[in-house]
Amino acid sequence: MKEAVFDQAGSRIRWTETPGEEPARVYVHGLGSVSTVYHAHIAARPELAGRRSLFVDLPGHGISDRPQSFGYTLDDHAGALAAVLDAERLAGAELVAHSLGGAVAIVLAHRRPDLVSRLVLAEANLDAHPPEGAGSSRIAAHDEAAFLDGGYARVLENVGPLWAATMRLADPLALHRTAVGLRRGSEPVMRELLEGLPVDRTYLQGGLSGELAGRAALVASGVRVVTVSGAGHNLMFDNPEAFAAAVAGNG
């Protein structure tokens, strides 16, 4: 386990990693998740093995610190992720990022293009105000005080055992502020940032999730959009073979 300071209070973002060749692949999880749980089995696949791989837990999640004074906006998370890459002196890393993590990765690539050479985004949030049924919307529907006073427990009861297994490791305050920040989105919004990024970009959409909104415009901007058959939002669990192939550039 490694760590880097990400705020003025000395809070630390942490990650585990496996050695290998550069450029490094940096795996970033979604809301209420943990990077190793969602991505270690992908990085270990034969077509991806041999590359240095970092499994980063965003602030407030997993093994990272959860400062109460932190804002947990997309910009805040992107700054913390930049602290990891700066601490390891990584330039031109490949970011493999899911859901919330994909939105954070887009903001990071916009803010610090020196750090990122490629984005592989698994159903990343591209727009502000996701549908009411989205996990972030259900969390952000509570005000902060109500979420801390019973809302967090109710959400855990209703998200299902898979997501609850990692969400219970997230700090409730951090989880709520992160959900609110994700619903607010970035400025300009993540979709606009992604379309203008001068890096290799792949977007993975689960075949069971329906048609990707704005797909034609993304493709026209140079984003490679891949539909992963038989997969919903958690593509790396539903179809790990296709997910790994896309990360390897073969999907």
In a nutshell, what does this entry contain?
Helix content is 41%, strand content 20%. The protein has 251 residues and is of the alpha/beta class.
- Mean model confidence by pLDDT: 96
From the alpha carbons, calculate the radius of gyration and give it in angstroms. Answer: 17 Å
Shape annotation: globular
Helical fraction equals: 40-55%
Number of continuous helical runs = 11
| Content of β-strand | 15-25%
**Ends apart, CA distance between termini:** 31 Å
**Which structural class matches the secondary elements?**
alpha/beta
Q: Biggest sheet, strands in spatial order?
A: 1-2-4-3-5-6-7-8
- Topology as a string of helices (H) and strands (E): EEEHEHEHEHHHHHEHEHH
Main sheet: strands, sense, barrel? 8 strands, mixed
Count of strand segments: 8
Low-confidence stretches: none
How would you describe this structure to a colleague?
- With 251 residues, the chain is of the alpha/beta class.
- Helix 9 links the parallel strand 7 (200-206) and strand 8.
- The protein has eleven helices and eight strands.
- Helix 5 packs across helix 7 (172-184).
- The two termini are 31 Å apart.
- An eight-stranded mixed beta sheet has the order 1-2-4-3-5-6-7-8, with helices on both faces.
- The longest helix has 15 residues, at 144-158.
SSE blueprint and pairings:
Layout: E1 2-5, E2 12-18, E3 21-28, H1 35-43, E4 51-57, H2 74-87, E5 93-98, H3 100-111, E6 116-122, H4 135-140, H5 144-158, H6 161-167, H7 172-184, H8 190-196, E7 200-206, H9 215-220, E8 224-228, H10 235-238, H11 240-248
Parallel strand pairs: 3-4, 3-5, 5-6, 6-7, 7-8
Antiparallel strand pairs: 1-2, 2-4
Helix pairs in contact: 2-3, 5-7
